[in-house]
Amino acid sequence: MRQLSEKEVDQVKKAIAYKDLTSAEILVEIYDHYVSHLETFEEADFKDELFELEQKFRYSYYNPLQENFEKTAKKELRKIQWSICKSYLSWPKIIFTALVVIILTLIFDNLEGKTKGLAVIYPMGVAVLLFGLIALKSYLKVRKIKKNIGIASKVQSSFLTNLSLQFQMILGFFNLFVLIPKIFFDNPIWFESTYFIMASFLFSLFYIGYLFSLIEAWKVKSKTALI
Description:
Elements: H1 6-17, H2 24-38, H3 46-56, H4 59-88, H5 93-109, H6 113-119, H7 121-149, H8 158-184, H9 194-221
Helix pairs in contact: 1-2, 4-8, 4-9, 6-9, 7-8, 8-9
């Protein structure tokens, strides 16, 4: 096995850059496959082998790879999240979970009426900040890869795409339970109503737990994926 020359590597990068790739993980996988395959042949066979690879890795071939990887990434994240949730509802971690719920309940119970209604907003602000940091970290990783290969197209981590979708789902719940009722029932005492206070507390517990499992899943996948 030989090492490709700088000129040959540039040709590989140009070939990859012309492809309509959107998944950073698939981009890296295809690039690594090209290089490892071409390194097994002599320099005289480089152009012919590169041509053969280009004939194989057409849009009709690599696009299904991207779509399948998106689905796999989604399932993998959910599997990790569910595993984390089950671990915190099993012995002995359930003791920690119960203590957190009790502490949050006591804090919430000691807040004033309007403050209770607004309490649901603060964790959402923390969530936005955390997701921003995760997205930035992923962006820097992918930008380095794009710069190395010379790709200007929109490429991002498939795992980040799925994280974004789940985060948007949380924001959707937030709008459904907080902002939309506020619009339709525009009342000065809305944030002090019993319904809103209870809904706020239950919703806070839900999305704090959900976000925690999502962040834990990110920590696991960030060791190997581009997030």
